[in-house]
Amino acid sequence: MLSGLGAIRRGASALAVSVRHGCASSRASHCRAVSSLSWVPSTDNRAKRSSATLLMPNRGLISGMSGIPGTLDREQIVYIEDESTASSLPFQKIAIIGAGVMSNVIVARLVESLGAKCPPIFLYDVEPKQSAKMAEEFEQVTAVAQSCEVFQDADLILLAVKPQNIASVAAEMKNSRDCVRKDALVLSILAGTPTITIQKALGMRRIVRAMPNTPCALGMGITVWVSTADVDDTQVVGIEGVFGVMGESVRVRDEKFLDMATALAGSGPAYVYLAMEAMVDAGVQMGFPRDTAVQLVQNTFQGAGAYAMHSTRHLAQLRNDITSPGGTTAAALYTLERGGLRTTLSDAVFAAHRKAVELGEGKNPLPDAMGSGLSDDSY
Predict the structure, then answer these.
(1) pTM of the predicted protein model
(2) Which listed residue, 174, 247, 344, 368, has the most CB atoms within 10 A of its CB?
(3) Is 15 helix (H, G, I), strand (E, B) or coil?
C-alpha cells in the first residue's frame, strides 16, 4: 500500500503524482519506471480521508490506496501537479524541425501519454523520407514539404537538429516570417547552443533550452532546462507537461548548468553502457553465455539504480553494505580504485563539459550550416 499522499491540491478531479521512495509494487524497479501516475479519487476531494487508485497511463492498474492523510510525506512524493499538465497541454499546434531520434522520442511519449488530447504535430525535415516515416508511425503527425506549413499557427516550435544547423533553421524561419507567430515558444534541444544564440539567429524571444537524455524514450529520463524571461506562466506549465511525459525534469535559473547537465545526464547513459559492456564481456570470459551475462548485468544496473533512488542513504554507505572485509567486492573495488576508475570517470565528465562549453562559445569549428541540412539520426 502506498501511503503518505497529502497536500493534494483541491478542486481537480484527477491529479498526477510522482513517486520517489514509496512503492506499491514489490519490485522497486517498477516504482521508478513510473514517473507520472494518475490519482483518481473515489470520494469528494474535500474529504479528509478518501480512497484512490493509482493508474499508469496505458498500462493499467498499479495499486489501490486509502486513508490519505493531510500532510505531505516527502519520502513518498516528489511533486503533485494538476491534470492540465499531466494529461493535456496548452499548445494548439506543435511544429518540429528535424526528424531524428530525439524528436521521435518526444513525439512517441506525447502520443502515448496524451492520446487524443495530444495537439496536432507538424514535422519538417530537409529529408522528406525521414519526416514521412514518422508521419506513418504516428497519426497525430503531419509531414510537410514547406517550412511555412510547419510554422503556420504553431505556438510551440521544437528545434531538434544538430547545433551547426541553426543557420539553416534561421534561414527557413526568415523565409517563412509571415507564418511564424512572434509569441510562439521555441524549445531547443541543441547541445551547446545558448539561448542568446537562438534568439539572435531566429529573432524569437521566448526560448526554452533543454537537455533531455535517451531514457526519456521510456518515460524514465531526466531533462534539465532553462527559459528566457519572456516565457510566460502558461508556457512554463505547458513545457513542464512536455517534459513530464518523458520522466522527471529540473529547471535551473543559470544557463551554465545546461552544459553541466549535458556532461552528466545527457552523455551519462553512454558511460553506463560502456560499463555494462565491459561487465558483460567479463562475464563471457568467465564462461557465461552472452545472453545470460547480458541479463545479469542489465538487471544489476536496473536494480542498483532503483535501490539507490529508493534509499535516502549516501551512495558510499550503500556500497559499504555489500563490501565485506577481505571479500570479493572489496577485492574488485580495490582493483577499480587502483586502476583509476573514479578519476577517469570524473575526467570524462569534465571533458564532456569542456566540449559543451566550447560549442557554446563557438570555439569548436563547425561545418557551414547553410549547406549541411537539418536531418541527423542522432537528434
Answers:
(1) 0.72
(2) 247
(3) strand
